[in-house]
């Protein structure tokens, strides 16, 4: 088996551990996710144990392409150190700098991706907000006309 082939199977196996074929929609995945402080798949993306397409990285923030893109451009921006930020609802004053940095970085990445006509920023929180991964992340979606209100 080639190295790439091996990687492919590795990724599928890990993905199916949180989004199974019978639970294919993002909403179902979100409703099945239990809000918790446990490590998430994003730790393995940060450590590069799971491959992802990184579009921006510095000492505090990692930005990579979403595996299930909801538009021509769909990027996730995450703090490299979660520090209790499982979701925005858990934010404390000590997180103000990193929260600002995530949004500022989203603007830089939007520019880098050529989203000059606009884009959408989304932060899902908790079961009703359809959050499925409990490591705070900012969705940057663009490259098509968005609709309002969101679903
Ligand atoms: P949430 O639903 O929690 O707001 O967003 C989680 C996002 O993470 C989803 O859009 C989902 O497609 C993405 N995602 C989940 N697992 C992986 C993965 O292994 N790799 C990448 N690149 N994205 C993932």
UniProtKB/TrEMBL annotation:
A motif (Histidine triad motif) lies at residues 135-139. Residues 41-151 form the HIT domain. InterPro entries: Histidine_triad_CS, Histidine_triad_HIT, HIT-like, HIT-like_sf. The active site is at 137 (tele-amp-histidine intermediate). It comes from the Eukaryota. GO terms for molecular function: adenylylsulfatase activity. PANTHER family: HISTIDINE TRIAD HIT PROTEIN. This is HIT domain-containing protein.
């Amino acid at each position: 088996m080639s190295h790439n082939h091996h990687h492919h199977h590795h990724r599928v196996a890990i993905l199916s551990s949180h989004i199974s074929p019978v639970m294919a929609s993002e909403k179902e995945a979100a409703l099945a996710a239990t809000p918790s402080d446990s490590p998430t798949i994003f730790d393995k993306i940060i450590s590069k144990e799971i491959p992802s397409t990184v579009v921006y990285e510095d000492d505090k923030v990692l930005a990579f392409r979403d595996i299930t893109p909801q538009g021509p451009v769909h990027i996730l921006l995450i703090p490299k150190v979660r520090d209790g930020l499982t979701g925005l609802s858990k934010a404390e004053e000590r997180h103000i700098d990193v929260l600002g940095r995530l949004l500022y970085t989203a603007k830089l990445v939007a520019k880098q991706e050529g989203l000059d006509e606009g884009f959408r920023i989304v932060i899902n929180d908790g079961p009703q907000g359809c959050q499925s991964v409990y490591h705070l992340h900012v969705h940057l979606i663009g490259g098509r006309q968005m609709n309002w209100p969101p679903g």
